[in-house]
Amino acid sequence: MADPKGFLNHGREVAKSRPVEERVRDWNEVYVPGSLLPIISKQASRCMDCGIPFCHNGCPLGNLIPEWNDYAYREDWAAASERLHATNNFPEFTGRLCPAPCESACVLGINQPPVTIKNVEVSIIDKAWETGEVAPQIPERLSGKTVAVIGSGPAGLAAAQQLTRAGHTVAVYERADRIGGLLRYGIPEFKMEKRHINRRIEQMRAEGTRFRTGIEIGRDLKATDLRKRYDAIVIAAGATTARDLPVPGRELKGIYQAMEYLPLANKVQEGDYVAPPISAEGKHVVVIGGGDTGADCVGTAHRQGAASVTQLEIMPRPNDERNPVSQPWPTFPMLYKVTSAHEEGGERIYSVSTTHFEGDEDGNVQWLHMTEVEFVDGKLTQKPGTERKIPAQLVTLAMGFTGTDRENGLVEQLGLELDERGNIARDADFQTNVPGVFVAGDAGRGQSLIVWAIAEGRSAARGVDRFLTGVSDLPAPIRPTDRALTV
């Protein structure tokens, strides 16, 4: 145990953010560099080493949180890094991007602010990189088996790294021009600088993983040809079919899906553009969707110099604190969340629905018309007399995703079966109806969190390893049927 009285002696402290007026002028991560390390030992000491650590249940990876909290408290960074990597291939990703269901399940959180698990995690891994503790793990021998991984997001990278370390020859196929999937082009630089992805890719290359960019399976290369070329395939292509908004005026210029808008800002940071082809500069921006992707659009618009930013959400405003009846501990509660992007400005409007868009004579969107909504007999219903319009010269749709891409031919070419939600169906080993073809991440689970993607990639790797060799020592932290700890 760390400090038996740590949770009594120390309150919760989180990473310090840079001043808003400073950070909106650049694309660097919003946190003050180095601000965590001086306080993280005390924060780790707040972990109570519970008899039943419910943080394990909150995290699908099964992270050994009390163990690496103890090592962080003692500043044994090498041991902490080893414990961290025992369950998580990419803690620098999750420590920056995960909404931390582990903290919602923290036992201390019953009557106090929970342990800052994410901050401890990211401190450990950043220190490990700094001190050279993170090194390639090259397999002792090769199996002679080959695996193709389709998609280079967190699920695909986790599966690829696990299978490479098991001795298989793995090639990762990515349709974009760089490796990383949504980590690369969906997550803004101010939430995670892409240098963190780059050094992991170099580690994986040193271990033997091969990367093939600019190749879309189904279009550039038939999935059936890929199946002939490899002993097994892992589909980790994500759930990239975005939910649309079929209202009058949707065809107007200036209305984009979030994943049409966000990648261009990231490509500027990669040096591909001097200025993004779609920019919020000087425009009244409306973001439709109140989730994390919507917040990413808000923060991006701030940095591009938007005249105003308004975020719309059809659901009511969440509570500030957990409701012990409807959202009891240790479930993951739906709470009102103020992200770094929201700290930077803009307006958030809840319980509204877009009715139509209005444009100018050149076909450019100028106004968004909306109405308030309320639940009546369990159904969202428009409230008469609440119609109004707001200026909208750039609109981004961030309303989630409905399933994996069906237009590129991958699903049809392999003859894959889908489940009732439109995801690729799989068995207990993450194998599809086609022998030797597996699926991991959002393509099989549906839109989910980064921790679930990595957990699925690790679990699918075990299924592939067992398919290829008959047995496997690789870990499988979750089953395909497992779901988050929610109500």
Automatic annotation (TrEMBL):
Sequence intervals crossing the membrane: none
InterPro entries membership: 4Fe4S_Fe-S-bd, DPD_II, FAD/NAD-bd_sf, FAD/NAD-binding_dom, Glut_synth_ssu1, Glutamate_Synthase, Helical_ferredxn
Domain 4Fe-4S ferredoxin-type: 38-69
Pathway listed: Amino-acid biosynthesis
Domain of life according to the entry: Bacteria
Keyword set, alphabetical order: Amino-acid biosynthesis, Glutamate biosynthesis, Oxidoreductase
Protein name listed in UniProt: Glutamate synthase subunit beta
